[in-house]
Design goal:
three-stranded antiparallel β-sheet; globular; Arc Repressor Mutant, subunit A; homodimer; 5 helices; alpha+beta; DNA-binding
DNA sequence: TCAATTGTTCAATGAATTTTGAACAAAGGA
DNA sequence: TCCTTTGTTCAAAATTCATTGAACAATTGA
């Protein structure tokens, strides 16, 4: 129903986006969103990436930088990647970051957050 | 002559790289290095992006994250982009970031540092 | 109405970041 | 040997960032 405040497409700032993605928790959130593109996820889906309070903080950062869209539905927040806007503003950027993120660093496995 | 300490190619960390590029001064340095690929630049070339001391700080950050290579020659430091290593570890990432950085944000011009 | 679910906000804390000027060091040229 | 050029290191200060627990708010279901 209610879309939480977010920057418009032409307000998207590269340094701000890179900065917000320069954090392993937030990178994990974005990678998970990308693996589930189409289905909006609620905050609770990310609970193994941080505490409830901490996720609220990181998810707000992502939304304020324009990486994610957050819609309030009931007591839930439905979160999606702003792929269209990001692709329009910075073509190819998101995909190359996601591709890099999926290269398992040093043979480690990236576990999926709770489903 | 002497190559300053830097992470090896497989030590390159995506979050660390994005984090270090999430700063407009450092992004400006990297964009300028890319526009001059081939010719190593010394710190002084970047003087309009910050003070001498401040640049020393930012250039160290870039080197420690593995984005740049720094070679000490005399009293100078010759700085280059680690394009080969970055491309090998994260194919396409650097180019998409550079392409995004070259989209003038909001019609602004990016002035070249002093030559 | 009551209780549970889902998240946010707040204050506090500790850590990391950015910036500055002063002092320093190393190399090169006059 | 001096002086200049090129950068680094250090300490200090200001700011921002990440994390936590407690309290709160809103919605939903029994």
């Amino acid at each position: 129903m209610a879309l939480l405040p977010q920057p418009s497409t032409d307000q998207l700032d590269l340094a701000a986006i890179l900065g917000v993605l320069g954090d392993s928790t937030r990178l994990g959130i974005v990678a998970y969103l990308a693996r589930n593109e189409g289905k909006p996820l609620s905050c609770g889906q990310f609970l193994d990436l941080g505490s409830k309070t901490n996720l609220s903080y990181h998810l707000a950062k992502l939304r304020e930088a324009g990486v994610t869209r957050t819609e309030a539905v009931g007591t839930s927040r439905l979160i999606t990647l702003r792929r269209d806007d990001l692709d329009r503003r910075f073509p190819g950027l998101l995909d190359s970051i996601l591709a890099s993120a999926n290269l398992r660093p040093l043979g480690q496995t990236v576990p999926d957050p709770v489903s």
